[in-house]
Write a structure and sequence with these properties.
The chain is mainly α. It contains 6 helices and no strands.
């Protein structure tokens, strides 16, 4: 089974599922959307990481999540996907977590 982020399981209408030409077309459109230069920043990286995770590209998903966390170290969805995928947390994130712990 292909790993899916929690948000994909919680909102099934957002992420295409199944097989066949409809899935192929939708997946292709999502991949092209993620690569658009008009979309930039950590939110775009989160989108790319979700696509990679959904497509079974776990190493790529982990790398992209780690990169996005350097830009948005407190982003909850990034932390959730990092935990699901086993992504390494950048030093900046670990340092911030230490300041907020009891």
């Amino acid at each position: 089974m292909t790993p899916q982020p929690a948000t994909a399981r919680a909102a099934p209408g957002i992420w295409p599922s199944g097989t066949g030409c409809c899935w192929s077309d939708a997946a292709d459109r999502l991949a092209r959307l993620a690569a658009r230069p008009a979309l930039a920043g950590a939110e775009s990286l989160l989108f790319q990481a979700r696509l990679a995770w959904r497509d079974g590209e776990a190493d790529r998903a982990r790398a992209v999540v780690s990169e996005a966390l350097t830009e948005l170290p407190g982003h909850q969805e990034l932390h959730t996907l990092a935990a699901e995928s086993g992504a390494a947390l950048p030093a900046r994130v670990l340092g911030a977590a230490g300041r907020f712990s009891c």
